[in-house]
Design a protein that fits this description.
alpha+beta, six-stranded antiparallel beta sheet, four-stranded mixed beta sheet, 18 helices, 20 strands, globular
Length: 540
């Protein structure tokens, strides 16, 4: 999603007033069921499934939507939800059969057309959906979403509705792991109400998940309420979730301690030394499919021209990951040695050490490489990050301190804070940044492909640095076409080695999911994506 590179957040004055007025952090939900209050941040874009590729919007879609598959909240395995069967004989032509009995919360039936229409909408260039590239392997994508010019077709030729419960998908190459990608939000179904009254749907989205949107006051709170007629196997165990917007997660943590908030899913770095004594067993700290990186603007000739890979490698070697993760993150981060996550395991494609010595702290070698590569562009390194959480400033400052000490220049590296995550993302999307920027990635699904293709494939949805390498693209295509998972993983690992050569981003550390909750709620845990399993939370 999410992602796509993602962030955590916090409360303006209006939300603070709301928090203070809520007894015990929650309110009464429909039918007397209690509502849970949780920290959140406004998403970058409206909550269209194919236009949401960051954490905050992804949290809402996980509550609002159910698709063909869902990733098991314990194991991360892709499991059928609306899909009764997804069948193929050649890993290229698939027949999807839906389970009966599913509806949207407005009463519309979920049919094969609900999926086909949603995917066609998401893929079409005219709609400017950030996740459009997730449909690139379906036949006809080049017509509905050409690299240049305008679309010459409105729908994907590879999608065909057979009947209410059956549709077929023709891919433009073999893709044996394709069914496992279908739990991602881009592939969610949409009701006809989305197309009949698009503006109305954006104001109050309609889904088929365990929660409905009750109301959304941007900048303050999004109120999700239990859908009592939800037909799925995982109904909400609470009356709803109030997602309260915070622009400072220290404030969210303070509200949690004061009993004005039930759940925080990002413990600020400044509180990590005290969190165990503050919360005891109500502190959550578990491995998650998240990696933090610094991404270079490869679209800027100062960073992308040949030879600059030496500067990028040198900067990576100037960062003392061990010291930063120990002193700032208190065992909630682990120094990264590749571009994926240990959560994947060997079978999923994780391979320790792919980064090689470029991820080892070596000041002398760092200085040598930076000098050989032509030095820092403009003589100074600017690291851009969103400032609406307490933790990013701390580690950005620590990274700059490490680089400055390595280079013997206190002004060689400086942080560049941007006020909000939305503004930060907008600057990235507009290619306004001329130096490296924070680029945390939370996996959308537990495959090595998801850590590589969306971020580094030419033109991919979350390729914010605009890295482009023909050999990398070729290996990704070959991996997707591999007849089995083992061969696919090997090809993806070959592609990852190109990243180690070119360093379009600097792997910093693998991130645990962290959080804390009040005494008022129980059955709280994070899934492998570090997102709370909201529907399982109970009150009292």
């Amino acid at each position: 999603m999410r992602g796509a590179a993602r962030a955590k957040w916090a409360v303006g004055a209006a939300a603070l007033a709301l928090a203070a007025s809520a007894c015990g952090g929650g309110t009464a939900g429909p039918g007397g069921s209690a509502v849970v209050s949780a920290s959140w941040g406004d998403p970058q874009n409206p909550l269209e499934p194919a236009n949401t590729n960051e954490v905050q919007g992804g949290k809402v879609l996980e509550m609002l939507m159910r698709g063909l598959k869902r990733y098991n909240p314990k194991t991360g395995a892709a499991e059928n939800v609306l899909a009764d069967r997804i069948e193929t004989t050649d890993a290229r032509h698939y027949t999807v059969t839906l389970k009966p009995g599913w509806t949207f919360s407005n009463g519309e039936k979920v049919t094969a057309k609900s999926f086909v229409d949603a995917w066609n909408y998401g893929a079409l260039l005219d709609h400017k959906q950030k996740n459009a590239s997730f449909f690139q392997y379906i036949d006809g994508f080049d017509k509905v979403h050409p690299d240049k010019g305008t679309a010459t077709a409105k729908t994907l030729s590879g999608l065909k509705v057979k009947d209410d419960r059956t549709f077929t998908v023709a891919l433009n190459q073999k893709f044996s792991s394709w069914p496992d990608t279908l739990g991602y939000s881009a592939f969610m179904p949409l009701p006809q109400a989305f197309f009949r009254d698009h503006e109305g749907w954006l104001k109050k989205p309609i889904g088929n998940g365990p929660y409905m949107v009750d109301s959304y006051d941007k900048g303050t709170v999004l109120r999700m309420r239990k859908w009592k007629k939800y037909p799925g196997p995982d109904p909400a165990q609470n009356g709803g979730i109030d997602l309260r917007v915070y622009t400072d997660n220290d404030t969210a943590y303070t509200d949690l301690q004061a009993g004005n908030l039930d759940l925080v899913d990002d413990i600020p770095a400044s509180q990590l030394r005290n969190v165990r004594s503050d919360l005891g067993d109500r502190y959550l700290n578990q491995p998650a499919g998240i990696i933090q990186t610094l991404t270079f603007p490869m679209y800027d000739p100062q960073w992308g021209k040949p030879g600059r890979e030496k500067v990028r490698r040198g900067l990576s070697m100037a960062i003392d990951r061990q010291q930063i993760t120990k002193e700032i993150f208190q065992h909630t981060r682990t120094p990264a040695t590749d571009w994926t996550s240990p959560v994947l395991g060997e079978k999923g494609g994780y391979q320790a050490g792919v980064c090689g010595d470029a991820c080892d702290f070596n000041p002398a070698k760092a200085r040598q490489l930076i000098k050989e590569g032509g030095g820092l562009p403009g003589g100074r390194l600017t690291l851009t990050y969103n400032a609406d959480t307490g933790s990013h400033k701390d580690w950005i400052d620590a990274v700059c301190n490490s680089i400055n000490k390595t280079l013997g220049n206190d002004r060689a590296c400086v942080g560049n804070p941007v006020g909000t995550f939305a503004d930060f993302r907008n600057q990235i999307s507009a290619r306004h940044l001329t130096g490296p920027f924070r680029a945390g990635w939370q996996m959308d699904y537990p495959l090595i492909q998801n850590f590589l293709q969306p971020l580094y494939y030419t033109g991919a949805s979350s390729n914010d640095g605009k890295f482009s390498n023909a050999a990398f693209d070729r290996l990704v295509n070959e991996a997707n076409a591999a007849p089995d998972a083992r061969q696919a993983v090997a090809k993806f690992q070959d592609a990852e080695r190109i990243l180690a050569q070119q360093m379009p981003s600097i792997p910093l550390w693998y991130q645990n999911g962290s959080g804390g909750y009040s005494e008022r709620i129980s059955m709280v845990r994070l899934n492998p994506f570090s997102v709370p399993v909201y529907n399982e939370i109970t009150v009292g």
